[in-house]
Amino acid sequence: MTDTWLPPREYIATLPQNTAYACLYFTDRAGRPLQLRAAYESEPWQSPGGNMDPGETPWETAVRECREETGIVFDGEPRLLGFHFAAPRGEEWPSNHMGVIFDGGVLTDRQIAGIVLDPAEHSAYRVASLAEWEREMTPASFARLARIDEARRTGTVAYMETGSFA
Questions:
Q1: What is the pLDDT confidence band of residue 17, given thresholds at 50, 70 and 90?
Q2: What is the pLDDT of residue 165?
Q3: H/E element holding 132?
Q4: Which domains are present in the chain?
């Protein structure tokens, strides 16, 4: 850190670079989490959401991405379930990656059946118990899913740090 004043643009250039995502966590009436199968990610299952666009808030991102990825127009109020921080992974992903996870609530069977995926982004969707997701996901991804589920059930907010966002 310097004692010399810098104009905001120059000062910001000295700070760590970050990317950010936001998503909505949904379950069915039985409490089983909804996940989308990514068409291009190394982590195949994820909640509806994506990276923030310039000038967008995390809440706006979560709602927009949910609509784009599932066709669900979410009009509920923002309720924070978790914050996720992942450290850079060298050349593979050279910046911090931060995520904000909001509660999307409970979907009816009809809403789930009405999901329309963007095939460029996702190839399938599924609701499954946590025990089933544990067999389908990497340990890190499942740990985040389980923490978010616990946060919803207990009315708390999960803070999660990982060495990477994979």
A1: confident
A2: 46
A3: helix 130-136
A4: 16-162 (3.90.79.10)
